[in-house]
Amino acid sequence: MLNHTLPSGSFTDFTPCSIKRFLGNISFVVLLNLLVKPGWVVLENVVQDRLGHEVFGTFTALLTLATIVAGISDLGTTQLTTKRLAASPGFFQEYFPTLLPLRIGLGVGFLLATVGVGWVLGYRGHWLLLLAITAAGLLLTQYILFLRGVLQAHQRFNTDAMLSVLERLLLLGLVLALLPVGLSLDRYVGARTIAVGFTFLLLVVLIRRFYGRVSLRPQWLQARQVLLDSLPLALITLVYGLNERVDMLMLERLVSSKEASYYAAAYRWVDAVMMYLWTVLPLFFARFARATGRPDEQQSLLWFGQRVVTVPLLFVVGFGLFRGELLFFQFGHSTPAEVARMTQCLQLLFLNVLVHAFFAIYSTLLTSTDHEKPVSWLVTGSIFLNVAMNFVLMPRFGALAGALNTLLCAVLVSGGYLWLVPRRTGVRLPWGMLLRLALVFVGLCGGWYLLRTYAGLPWWLEAGAAGLWLLALVAALGVVKVSEIRQLRGSK
Predict the structure, then answer these.
(1) From its phi and psi, is residue 122 left (phi > 0), alpha (psi between -120 and 50) or beta?
(2) What is the per-residue pLDDT across 465-486, written as a single tens digit (0 to 9) for each?
(3) Cys-Cys crosslink for 195: which of 62, 124, 170, 355, Cβ 3.0 to 4.6 Å?
(4) Would you say 53 and 181 are in contact if contact means Cβ atoms under 8 Å apart?
(5) Cβ neighbours of residue 103 closer than 8 Å, sequence gap 6 or more
(6) HSE of 322 in the Cβ direction (CA atoms, 13 Å)?
(7) Do the Cβ atoms of 343 and 328 come closer than 8 Å?
(8) Cα–Cα distance list, 108 to 101, 142, 241 (Å)
(9) DSSP state of 75
(10) So where are the chain's domains?
C-alpha cells in the first residue's frame, strides 16, 4: 500500500517559515551551481579533446593521485570544525589559533608525500613537476573547504554558495581566454592554480571581516586533541577519497592512459551531477549536528531531506541512461567507438549516482552524529572489494570494469547505511517514501523508453516531456503533496 503517512517528515513538522528559508538556501546554492558547473564540464571536455586522450589520461591519473592525498590531508578537521562550531560558537575563538597553523603544516607535509608517492609510482621529470603544482592547488582547495566550514556552521549558506562556484567561474574565464591563443597542459595547470589562489585570498579576507583577526598561537595539547577527535572523520575522508577516485589511477597504471581518459570523460559528468549532493548535504550535515540528542528533529530533517536530495536527480539519471551520448558532443577528434565507450561508462556511473541520490543522506546523518567509525568500516570494506575486482576485471574490460565495480560497491555500502541508521541513531527509515521514489523512477524510465521508441521527438522536446511526466508521477504518488506546496507559498 502507498498510503504511507509521513508523521515527521512532512513540511508540517517544521514551521513553514523555517522550511521556506531552508529551501531558499538550497535553491540559491543549486542555482549558482547550475549557472557555472555545466559550462565548466563542457569546457573541460573541450580541453580533453584538444589535448588528446593520451595526454589527458596521464594528467587525469596525476590529478586523481593529488586529489586522494589532498583529501587525506584534511584528516577530518573540516567536518569536525563544522560540527563543533554548529554546536558551540565559542569553538572558533578557542581553537582556531591552533587549527589554522595545524592545517598549514598538514598541507606542506602531504604535498611532499604526494610527490614521493608519484615518484614511487613511476612519474619522473616534467610529469612529477606537474603533479607537485596540481597537488599544491588541491591542498589549497582543501584549506578553502575548511574555512568554508566556518561559514556553514554559522548558517551563512548564501555566502558559502557563492564561494563554492567562484573557483570554477574564474577557471572557466581563464580557460576560455586560453583557447584562442593555444591551450597546452602547462597553461591549463597554471590556470587552475591561479583560480584557486584568488579564491583562497578572497575567503581569507571574508573570514577576517566576519570574525575578526585570528592570531596564530598553536598549542600542542589542543592540536593533539583535535587530531584525536577528528581521527574517525579522517578515516572516512581517506576511504571516500580512495573509493571515488582509485579507478582512474588504476586504469592508467594497469591498462592505458586512453582507458583512463574515457573513464574521466564520463566521470566528469558524474562529478558535476554529484555536486548537487555535495552542495546540499553539507547544509543537512550542519542541521543534523545542531539537532544532536534530539532524534525526533533529526527524523524530521531526514524524511524531508530524502525528497529534496532524491527527486531532482531522478530526471538527471534518466537523461544519462536514455540520452547520454549527447553529453559528449564536444569530442570532435574522437572516433564513434570512443564516444560509445564513454557513453557506456556514463550509463553505469549514472546508476551509481542513482544509488547515492537515494542513500547518501543516511551517511550524512551518521557522520554528523558521531557514528563515523561504522561508516568508515563499511566504506573500507567496499574499497578492498573494489580494488580486488579492478585487478581481476580491468585488464580485460578496461574502463567499463571500473564503472561497474564502483556501482556494485555503492550498493553494498548503501545497504550498510540502511542497517546502521535505526540501530545507531534511533531514527526510523522512511520506507514508504523510498518505495514511492523508486516507483517514480521506474515510471520515469518506462515513459522515457516509450518516448524514445515511438514518439520520434527532438531530444530537447523528448527531455521536456519526460520532465513533465516526472512531475506528474511525483504528484500522483504523493511524494510532494499539493497541501505542502500551498503551505509554503502562504508562509511569510
Answers:
(1) left
(2) 999 999 999 999 988 776 655 5
(3) 170
(4) no
(5) 77, 143, 146
(6) 22
(7) yes
(8) 11, 12, 19
(9) T
(10) 11-490
